[in-house]
Each structure stands twice: as structure tokens, then as C-alpha cells.
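It is worth pausing here to work through a concrete case rather than discussing structure prediction in the abstract. The textbook approach is simple: state the sequence, then state the predicted structure, then interpret. We follow exactly that order.
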Amino acid sequence: MGTERQSTTGEAAHRVDDEILRLRAVVTECEPGHMRRHQALNRIYLLRRQRGEDPPDAIYDCRRVVRRWRIRNELAVNAGLLDYLHSIGFVGDGKDSIRPDERMIINYGDLDHGAPAMVPLVTAIDAAVRAYRRTLDDSLADQLGVSALDRFGLRSFAAATRRAGFHYPHLHGGAILVVSYYVRVPQTADGTAARLYFGFGENKLMDSRTWVVPEEGNIFVFPGHVMHQTSAPGTDEARINVGFDVIAREPA
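Step two, the predicted structure:
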């Protein structure tokens, strides 16, 4: 019986090793930002944790790969943004037009980066992405696929949540980096209603040891393979953010 159990355990360990090798091949083959690459990195993390490892890799250390900046003139930028979002059908105070699940989304492609209200923000996002690259050593930048991030594109969306509405754990397919700018953050007594969680997993965060409490004017930059979710505001006033995916752009 003991020999059979050891044999079964050994076979299971070999299967896990083989799957990790296969997944590492996917990571190598896929371009940075590809959803298959994101999913493979998260699956590797899960397999290693399930067999008792605490992956020491820097790409799984959210404290090393998540960065926060603050836009300097956020009050002026935010006022213009709220007016602009309202003008294209987004209700800035989160009332009436918000969906039954207490969320509202302006989809990719619906925000005009050339609109006067968007230009200051897009300029700040561009600067934050370039600053992010400078904070990384060459080895970590190479692992994240941003070592040669001289030219890149941005695609954007906007989101509002209120009351019990929140964003489920998710990844951004095609994004080398994800950037989130907070236009409005409802004030709560303990701050828990404004949390942004980071971690890894499949459909849910297996590990969300890293979380932040965003403030209005904050810009967060993190790799596309980092799974993230928000907590519910629990207020009638909506939490509003504009998100950007940093995508590869071919040299001119």
C-alpha cells in the first residue's frame, strides 16, 4: 500500500512538472501581453503554490511590479474628465443610467484620446508608463516583456461602480501593462470600500496579499499578467476610473 501511494504521488508530481514545462513554453512562444501568456503565468503560479512552493520570482511579487503615481493637477483634470464622460453618455454621479449590477462601462474605442479633456490625462499616462520602465532592473523588465518598450499604443475604457457593484478578478488580454487612473473615489470611514486587489489565479484570486486604497488623482501601473479586482464602494456615489491597456506598436 505504501509503495503504491508513493508511486501515485510520484506520478502526480511528474505530471505537474510536465505541465509547468509546457506552460513555460507557452510563455516563451507568446508575445508579451497575449492572453495565453497571462493565463500560463497564472497557471504556473497556481501549480507551484499547490505543491507547497511560495514562488520567489520577481514577476509574482506585486510589491515589486505594481507602481503608484499621482497626477499633479488632478482637480482640474478630473473636472474636465467628468464633463467629457457625461457628454458621451456616462453619468458622472453614477445615478439613473448605471446598470442593475451597479456597474457602468464605456468600452474600448469609445474614448477619444484627442479630446481636450483627455489630452492631459493621456500625456500623464504616457509619462507614467515610461517612468515605470525606468524603475525596473533589466532582468525584471525582460521577464515582463517591457525591456524594449520605446513605442507603444494605448487603448482605454472608463468604469463606474457604486453600492454593491465591483469588478470581478480579471486579466486584460493584449495588454503588456495595465494603467488605472482614479477620477473619483468615494470617501468611507475605514477605507476598505475603495480597495484594489492584486494577485494570481484562475477566475478568482488565489493570493491577494497585495492591496491598495486608491485616492483621486492616483495612477497605478502593473503588468498585464497580474490579476486584479475591486471591492464594492458601498456608497450611492460612484467610484470612477479610466483604464488604459499598454499594447505593442510596431516600429515606424
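Step three, interpretation. The chain is about 35% helix and 25% strand. Residues 193 and 233 are 5 Å apart (CA to CA).
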